Amino acid sequence: MNYLLNLFCAFLMVLSNSLIKKTLHGINLNWHGKPTEWILNFLNLFKFPLFWAALISFICSILAWVYIISVQNISTAYPIQISFVLILMSTKRAAFGLNKDTNPITL
Fold it and tell me: Is the pLDDT of residue 12 over 90?
């Protein structure tokens, strides 16, 4: 099996997630009961190049995932994909640390 494609797809997923988080930092997208205001705030995201990069990365990861499940058995591909995403997210978190604004989940 070609695990490099799985790894590349997982990398794109982690990259798009990280870029969206970076883009949304400091932007007010809270719902205040005014749909037009929220939609305008959401559309303002398209002004940021990081949002475009996140969107392109996300679309590429979806296309890669569709290809992966078309050529690999889903019962094998899904656990591999989840494992790669978990490993990459953990590595990213360990390498770059937590932002001061990040609230880790506590039990």
Answer: yes
- Compute CA 34 distance to the chain's CA centroid, rounded to the nearest angstrom: 27
Interatomic CA distance for residues 1 and 45, integer angstroms: 39
- Indicate the domain borders of the chain: 3-94
Phi, psi angle pair for 105, to nearest 5°: -75, 130
Cβ-contact 83, 49 below 8 angstroms? no
* Per-residue pLDDT reduced to its tens digit, 43-73: 888 988 999 999 999 999 999 999 999 999 9
56 token code pair: 């392109």
Whether pTM > 0.70 for this model: the answer is yes
DSSP 5: H
Report the phi/psi class of residue 34: left, alpha or beta, with left for phi > 0 and alpha for psi in -120 to 50. beta
